[in-house]
């Protein structure tokens, strides 16, 4: 009997030890142990990102995000693209731009054509993305890419259904100049789409004339695919098909209205559903591979937030990618960002006071940082911590945020903290000022 009691006691002790061992740490101790300084300006030292390597080794997709109009966003993109190419076999960099814009930028990446680069960034082709730091990002990626073997070279792709500036018009003019043996019948159909793109807004509802021109070109590509492949090339034909499909879909998606994201639920969900379909199409076309996606803030959240379902949540719900996506959320301390409406820099921050207090208590409040949220004993795997989300996500409508379900790591698995964000220099500012004169 005593022996039986002893065995039961030992079992109870073992269970108790196991429970205590696996109990989550408090958030202050956890972030102190699971964070590193993020050396954005030191591209020769990327050991800081070793912090996430074990967490992403079995993933197919790594995502980072941004609030637009901030210089450091380009630094984040180069830091991650550079590291992921060297340590994770990254092949495809998916940007928040239209497919035409991405195709043109990728041509620069593969060729180093400086005139093309200037046109993309300084002549309105890239719209809101036409800023000095993004241009420098493209140059650095070209230098990284140019001496690599073909199978290691990075490919840039524009994932978004939304188009930028003069990208469609420029793209069609560009392929006409690039491929000078397009047969008359095919060229006529391309010219009809080009003409409509010059006459109508690039996003929003299409006229019946524009939609017919798109459908006629799509039909002709389907019926005469061999002619198009011979006149252009197979990859360019795929590019053309995706661009035409996006032009049709922007008519269905509509345009964003003034007001918060929650007031534009229908637009954002329709847009990101199409972007998810674009991702699947791209993934199938290239036969898999590894992808780095960089997008605006909530787009990379893997769970519906504040009643809106974004790109990351669509990907996460796909059984093919359910456990293959890793999202990293970016928060900014007090600084400035460029305001496209005011054509000027404004004071800006997105970090919550709760997270600032946590960082201070952990004695890691200074500098840029990366924090992994999904390691062992993480409290962020147990509940939703407001502190990890943007100030706007949490406090724009507190009741709505409280309805968010799950735990923090259902939305994203790591966090970037940027100290003293600085505003971009936007090339489009001069174009707009000239139009107002």
UniProtKB/TrEMBL annotation:
TM segment ranges: 6-23
> What organism does this protein naturally occur in?
Clostridium senegalense
UniProt-listed InterPro entries: Emycin_Estase
SUPFAM superfamilies in alphabetical order: EreA/ChaN-like (SSF159501)
One Pfam annotation reads: Erythro_esteras
Name listed for the protein in its UniProt record: Erythromycin esterase family protein
Superkingdom of this protein's organism: Bacteria
User: Can you cite a GO biological process for this protein?
Assistant: response to antibiotic
What are the coiled-coil residue ranges?
none
Q: Which UniProt keywords apply?
A: Membrane, Transmembrane, Transmembrane helix
């Amino acid at each position: 009997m005593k022996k039986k009691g002893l065995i039961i006691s030992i079992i109870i002790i073992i269970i108790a030890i196991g429970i205590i061992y696996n109990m989550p740490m408090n958030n202050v101790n956890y972030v102190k142990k699971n964070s590193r300084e993020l050396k954005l300006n030191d591209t020769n030292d990327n050991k800081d990102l070793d912090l996430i390597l074990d967490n992403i080794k079995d993933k197919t997709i790594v995502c980072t995000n941004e609030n637009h109009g901030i210089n450091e966003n380009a630094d984040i993109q180069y830091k991650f693209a550079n590291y992921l190419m060297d340590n994770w076999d990254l092949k495809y960099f998916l940007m928040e731009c239209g497919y035409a814009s991405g195709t043109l930028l990728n041509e620069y990446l593969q060729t180093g054509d400086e005139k093309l680069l200037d046109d993309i960034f300084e002549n309105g082709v890239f719209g809101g993305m036409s800023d000095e730091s993004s241009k420098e990002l493209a140059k650095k990626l070209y230098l990284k890419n140019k001496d690599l073997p073909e199978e290691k070279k990075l490919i840039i792709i524009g994932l978004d259904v939304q188009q930028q500036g003069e990208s469609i018009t420029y793209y069609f003019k560009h392929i006409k100049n690039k491929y000078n043996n397009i047969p008359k019948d095919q060229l006529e159909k391309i010219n009809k789409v080009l003409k409509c793109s010059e006459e109508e807004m690039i996003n929003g509802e299409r006229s019946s004339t524009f939609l017919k021109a798109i459908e006629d070109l799509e039909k002709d590509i389907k019926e005469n695919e061999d002619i198009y492949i011979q006149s252009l090339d197979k990859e360019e034909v795929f590019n053309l098909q995706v661009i035409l499909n996006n032009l049709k879909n922007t008519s269905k998606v509509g345009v964003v209205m003034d007001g918060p994201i929650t007031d534009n639920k229908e637009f954002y969900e329709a847009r990101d559903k199409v972007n998810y379909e674009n991702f699947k199409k791209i993934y199938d076309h290239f036969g898999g591979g590894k992808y780095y996606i960089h997008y605006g803030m909530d787009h990379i959240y893997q769970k519906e937030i504040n009643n809106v379902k974004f790109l990351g949540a669509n990907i996460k719900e796909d059984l093919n990618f359910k456990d293959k996506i890793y999202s990293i959320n970016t928060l900014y301390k007090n600084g400035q960002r460029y305001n496209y409406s005011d054509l000027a820099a404004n004071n800006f921050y997105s970090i919550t006071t709760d997270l600032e207090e946590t960082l201070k208590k952990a004695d890691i409040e200074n500098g840029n940082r990366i924090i992994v949220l999904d390691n062992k004993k993480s409290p962020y795997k147990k509940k939703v911590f407001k502190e990890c989300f943007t100030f706007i996500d949490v406090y724009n409508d507190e009741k709505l945020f409280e309805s968010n379900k799950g735990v923090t790591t259902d939305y994203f698995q790591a966090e970037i903290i940027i100290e003293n964000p600085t505003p971009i220099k936007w090339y489009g500012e001069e174009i707009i000022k000239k139009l107002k004169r």
